[in-house]
Amino acid sequence: MTIAKKIKSSISQSSMIRKMFEEGILLKKKYGADKVYDFSLGNPNVEQPGEFKRELIKLAAEIIPLKHGYTPNAGYSETRQAIAGKISRTTGLKMSADHIVMSCGAGGALNVIFKALLDPGDEVIVLKPFFVEYPFYIENYGGVIKYAQTKTDFSLDIAAISKAINRRTKAIIINSPNNPTGKVYSKKNIAELARLLKEKGRAYNKAIYLISDEPYAEIVFDGVTVPSVLKAYPNSIVAYSYSKTLSLPGERIGYIAVNPKIHEADNLISALILCTRIMGFVHAPALMQRIIARLQDVAVDVKVYQKKRDLLCAGLAKAGYKFVKPQGAFYLFVKSPIPDDVKFVKILLQKNILAVPGSGFGGPGYFRIAYCVDDATIVNSMKGFAEANKESA
Amino acid sequence: MTIAKKIKSSISQSSMIRKMFEEGILLKKKYGADKVYDFSLGNPNVEQPGEFKRELIKLAAEIIPLKHGYTPNAGYSETRQAIAGKISRTTGLKMSADHIVMSCGAGGALNVIFKALLDPGDEVIVLKPFFVEYPFYIENYGGVIKYAQTKTDFSLDIAAISKAINRRTKAIIINSPNNPTGKVYSKKNIAELARLLKEKGRAYNKAIYLISDEPYAEIVFDGVTVPSVLKAYPNSIVAYSYSKTLSLPGERIGYIAVNPKIHEADNLISALILCTRIMGFVHAPALMQRIIARLQDVAVDVKVYQKKRDLLCAGLAKAGYKFVKPQGAFYLFVKSPIPDDVKFVKILLQKNILAVPGSGFGGPGYFRIAYCVDDATIVNSMKGFAEANKESA
């Protein structure tokens, strides 16, 4: 066979979402893009903050020796220092540049973390519903996934997580604000998780790592803030991306932040740096490293997303849909009016609405709406949503 | 244990080069950077062409919707089209955008290729001396490395390669112009390799892939050109990077070019795109994709490197060193005056000269000089080189 067996099977598994994507392209060709309501992709549509544009223009013209040359594998120390400083200020922890490894977005960060941590057969707990890429990221390195269900409000179910832990458990990955649910775990909920992981760590005499995937950390509404896992639990690692904070997912820039108190910190940091190198990332893109160092306190206007959320939630509630109102990210995970979410998404497709079945996220009976779209798309889609709900009743 | 066993052992293996690197930093602190002759790293010191700077400044200011948003996993079609067009023009092959997958440099490209191709136990032939990262890139995906020695002039030894091929052989990786030797394989030599691979492919009834790592393809001297492997052999894949052509290794931009006639082309291309996604690259950096689309016929002035090569070769020959004069890249692989290259590199270190032992490249008895440095570094290092040779006699 030409390609690796594992990859061959992954391609055929991926084909459902791809088919949806391709049908969307056909629909847009047929009816015009403005007549198709595409809620399928989490590609931020809010423009970059003015500060980003200004810094990019400035930096493009600046004369700096080897401006586009290799950086250290961990990234520029100035950039890592700026990030460590910000985390120290906001959490009160003593982070230094040494605890930061720059990455190609959160996707790159998570792959580097799993590569550094996992021996084949090591188990990683994934909470349902989950970001579709996690299973790939874990299985890339021979990790075994143990699923645990979240509660009906999508908060952490500590008892379910407790049941999933055993002596082979190496880590748990959480994502708050969550894709696909928009859930932000409360400080209390995170504290309960930390207590459980400490308890289990003692019982099995090992460190159980808490990997927190936080690309949406700044995309929060109603005055909510995302509690710091670094403060809550020593064996914690954060994967961060500027993709959403600065609306630049295409530029592949993020970081790994390692808790200064983590078990075998030096070894782990060396491993993360080595993995960044040998996986072919080599290091995060140089120009973007320089820019984000200057933009630690800048973010897109989250009120724009909040308004979209409110518009969407009000419209869907009126159309008779059931959902938990999210406090972050730009996703809504809606209860499908019929149990078969794949079938319901096909009904939506007949109304020129593109959504993703919850089954793809390990959440059957739901569908995901990515509302990082024009307000008009939200408003104009409501007729179709109402009809689809009615017809499936 | 905290980190993966495999990574733990890789860290300790990597420590020799790191020690050298750290000693270099100490030396520079002690004597001043201008008194230390650092030939250890292949970080291009020739500035980006003016066209790059102009396009970057222009593009930074341009208003393009979702300019920094996600691109397709394979990359922008305009960029892939531009690259396919250039390859078609220079080779006469019919390449289309579909045959190009954008990558995070050649390092990213090679990891994606190996991930897509290799089942655990599949063998990959690596030619000695080799780029230090190849063993990592192959073992990342459970591949098994089979080494074959090149000839004393560093050309392909077809008989040695033939001996290394068996029914488990999935691919061979070549690198021309070569790191660490600067060798450019001749058209005849490539044709001989293609003939062998076809013969062996028929004998084992399978495709043996020729992976050609070509980041230095434009860095060639004396009117030499790099023969196209795509033209020479159908089952060929090129990994390319703009790191050296445009002097921007920090920006992580390159591509994979798949031969249109390759075995199971569609499957392979789907696999490369999927692997780009699930390994966390997601896609190559967006801004750089746009820029290189506009710079397909631009390259740094290679005469600058050629002059450095001539300066270095003349100086070292006068100091009594033996080497094969390279026709490309910016490396010189010099015969160590004593058999123990690690020991000789330590002698050079006493002269404040940083070089890398050939042992690290699978070429014991040699040392590597990366001459992408100021001319003054080359000139001023000659006294130390001469003394080191004399003292070790």
Class of the largest domain in chain A in CATH? Alpha Beta
What is the second-level CATH architecture of the largest domain in chain A?
3-Layer(aba) Sandwich
Distance between the termini of chain A: 47 Å
Pair with the biggest interface = A-B, 73 and 73 residues
Spatial extent as radius of gyration of chain A: 21 Å
Beta percentage of chain A is 5-15%
Total domain units of chain A: 2
Shape of chain A: globular
Quantity of strands of chain A, as a count = 12
Short description:
Chain A has about 400 residues and is α/β, with parallel strands linked by helices. In chain A, about 40% of the residues lie in helices and about 15% in strands.
Notes on the protein architecture:
2 copies of one chain form a homodimer. The longest helix of chain A is centred in the middle third of the chain and has 18 residues, at 187-204. With 393 residues, the first copy, chain A, is of the alpha/beta class. Helices cover 42% and strands 14% of the residues of chain A. Chain A has helices at 5-13, 15-31, 50-61, 77-91, 105-117, 134-139, 158-164, 187-204, 229-232, 265-278, 286-293, 302-318, 341-350, 375-391, and strands spanning 37-38, 100-103, 123-128, 144-149, 169-175, 209-213, 236-241, 254-258, 331-335, 353-354, 356-357, 366-370. Chain A is globular, with a radius of gyration of 21 Å. Chain A has a 7-stranded mixed β-sheet with strand order 2-8-7-6-5-3-4, with helices on both faces. A 3-stranded antiparallel β-sheet of chain A has the order 9-12-11, covered by helices on one side. In chain A, strands 1-10 form a two-stranded parallel sheet. In chain A, helix 3 (50-61) crosses helix 11 (286-293), helix 4 (77-91) packs parallel to helix 11 and helix 5 packs across helix 10. Chain A has 2 domains: 5-48 and 301-391, Aspartate Aminotransferase, domain 1, CATH 3.90.1150.10; 66-293, Type I PLP-dependent aspartate aminotransferase-like (Major domain) (Aspartate Aminotransferase, domain 2, 3-Layer(aba) Sandwich). Chains A and B meet through helix 1, helix 3, helix 5, helix 10 and helix 11 of A and helix 1, helix 2, helix 4, helix 9 and helix 10 of B.
